[in-house]
Specification:
Shape: elongated
Number of helices: 3
Radius of gyration: 17 Å
Order of helices and strands: HHH
Number of strands: 0
Distance between the termini: 67 Å
Length: about 100
C-alpha cells in the first residue's frame, strides 16, 4: 500500500469562509463551547471558534503553508467579531427591555 497515493481535498479560502457563513446563518443562542450541536443542529460561535483554533494548532504542528494558516487565523478573527456583534446586540436588547 505504500505506493498508493491519496488525493487530498483542500478547500480554498472562499470555500472555508462560505462554510463558516453557512454555520453563522443558523447560529443559536448557545454560547457554551461544549454545546457543539443544539436541537436545531446549528453550531454556536464559541464551539466553531474552539474547533477552528484546534485546527490552527494542528496546522502549526504539521507545518502547513503560511497562507493557509493566515486564512484560518482570519476565520478566527471573523468569528470573534461576529460574537462581539451578537453580544452588543444582546446588551442593547436587554437594556431596552428594562
Amino acid at each position: 500500500m505504500s505506493g498508493v497515493k491519496r488525493k487530498r481535498n483542500v478547500l480554498n479560502v472562499e470555500q472555508k469562509l462560505e462554510i463558516l457563513q453557512k454555520l453563522d446563518n443558523g447560529e443559536s443562542d448557545s454560547t457554551d463551547a461544549e454545546d457543539v450541536l443544539n436541537e436545531g443542529n446549528t453550531i454556536s460561535h464559541s464551539a466553531a471558534l474552539q474547533s477552528v483554533e484546534t485546527l490552527l494548532d494542528y496546522m502549526g504542528q504539521r507545518g502547513f503553508d503560511y497562507g493557509d494558516i493566515a486564512a484560518v487565523r482570519k476565520i478566527c478573527v471573523d468569528i470573534r467579531q461576529e460574537m462581539n456583534k451578537q453580544q452588543k446586540q444582546k446588551r442593547i436588547t436587554d437594556f431596552l427591555k428594562q
